[in-house]
Amino acid sequence: MALRSSIFLSFITSVKIRCPSTCSCSKESIICVGGTNVPRISPNDINSLSLVNGTFSEIKEAMFSHMQSLQLLLLNSNSLTTIRDDAFSGLPHLEYLFIESNQLETASKYSFRGLRDLTHLSLANNKIKALPRDLFFDLDSLIELDLRGNAFECDCRAKWLMSWLKSTNATVSDVLCAGPEAMKGKRLNDMTSLHNECTSTDFTLHQSVASESLSVDTFTYKNDVYVAIAAPNTESCMVMQWDHIEMNFRTYDNITGQSIVGCKAVVIQSLVFVIVAQLFGGSHIYQFDDDQSRFNKFQDIEVSKISKPNDIETFQIAGDWFFVIADSSKAGLSTLYKWNGKGFYSHQSLHEWFRDTDAEFLDVDGKAHLILASRSQVPVIYQWSRSNQKFVQQGEIPNMEDVVAVKHFRVKEELYLAMTRYIGDSKLLHWGAKQFVEIQALPSRGSMILQPFSFKERHYLALGSDYTFSQIYLWDAQEKQFERFKEVYIQAPRSFTLVSTGRRDFIFSSSFKGNTQIFEHIIIDLSL
Ligand SMILES: *[C@@H]1O[C@H](CO)[C@@H](O)[C@H](O)[C@H]1NC(C)=O
Ligand SMILES: *[C@@H]1O[C@H](CO)[C@@H](O)[C@H](O)[C@H]1NC(C)=O
Ligand SMILES: *[C@@H]1O[C@H](CO)[C@@H](O)[C@H](O)[C@H]1NC(C)=O
Questions:
Q1: 515 in ligand 3 pocket by Cβ < 6 Å?
Q2: Which atom of ligand 3 approaches the CA of 211 most closely?
Q3: Upstream peptide bond of 180 is cis (omega within 30 degrees of 0)
Q4: Which ligand is nearest to the CA of 136?
Q5: Is residue 98 a part of any domain in this protein?
Q6: pLDDT in tens, 216-228
Q7: Residue 42: CB within 6 Å of ligand 3?
Q8: What ligand is nearest to the CA atom of residue 32?
Q9: Element containing residue 161 per DSSP (H, E)
Q10: Domain that holds residue 520
Q11: Number of structural domains, the chain?
């Protein structure tokens, strides 16, 4: 080919083009030593350009496009740290590209875009730690790639390169790992997998529902996923359904009422109910009517002892269905209701005169328990007595005044409680030998909810705040405590509810002063 002979000829032939003082030029080739810029001369038949020992730090977009006929470009021993996207655009015939002995730590994702004729590429003796995914995508003709003398970090960032090394037809030099510690000195070419899973997660806003809300509950019926949102400003329980085609939650039915504070769904065999708690006009149960695709009034709840419902909790004990309403008025009485096959009827009155804020049903060492949190005393623990079919007060959780919500969760069979307090510290407790022991305090700045939720092996806590961002914490399995993970802004958050459609996972955060926000839990591939 013409290129080879022209390189040798270039030194002897002197040509009549305006050659910069730092360069020697021939008809077909230019060599510049110690220059500071690319020669502006543009004869059509220059096919090789060498810029060595110069002080360039950056290859800008289309920097050589005035020398369209270049077949060889050598940029060794400059001070290059940056290669911009489309740096070599306008060079359709480029076959040899050498960028050796510079200071490159990486390259832009589209650095080599369009170099379909490139056969030889060398990035040897730089300081490359990682390269962006698919950097070599356009290099259809590549025969040889030299990456020697770099400092590759063989972590997630190298994952794509590891796979590419296996699939490419080009001959690639050894790609030696400089880190992490466990990989030092190994060849990326030999590896089949990297140490860690190379994924992280995030929460991104998926949808915003133009309504304030106090609580969100979810249920599944005939393979469809629904949510029931207590929306006091529209005086309704808004029922929404996941739309598999539009990929969002759409309005389905509205159960209207007055001063609705809670909507809780319970599916008993093939019957779907929504328990609607109201501050005024009593509380009611609605049943889903399959034929009309809407909810109809099913029954009133006896509420003689309930005056300010604050939370509804549904659960099953030994096959029987129950729900409990926590009452937060001074005169009220938290009450347990039981399903008798025809309706829900009051079964037991609990906890008199204590202004209960929340009820949490949980299994402790194989036995059914109920924890009631209240404004005026520490949380009390009830245990279900099988013999008299009632909850019996068993103890309390000391030093834990003024809890507004209590939620439980498990990490690898271990039982934990998340105790929400409005100001001061919310608390994380662990069930140890016969008692709950505090293991972590999380600063609360106007918190009405500290909600645990898990996606597969990742455990989170969402701590709402009325005065600043809400915090999402992520469980650190090694430290056995939660670390700050992400901040999200929600006006006056009142609940966080996990809603899963099977394929996609969402967190609904209700807001007492703004829109109800739906965040999606997404997996991020760190090797990108
Ligand atoms: C390259 O530059 C260095 C220092 O700037 C100098 O010492 C060396 O002689 C140069 N090499 C050539 C071939 O000009
Ligand atoms: C490698 O070469 C084979 C055989 O010529 C071809 O089928 C394959 O597509 C090539 N692979 C790549 C990644 O270019
Ligand atoms: C329910 O109420 C909301 C808010 O008022 C409204 O936008 C929506 O269309 C209603 N949905 C149905 C199914 O009636």
A1: no
A2: 4
A3: yes
A4: 2
A5: yes
A6: 999 999 999 999 9
A7: no
A8: 1
A9: helix 159-167
A10: 205-212+397-528
A11: 2
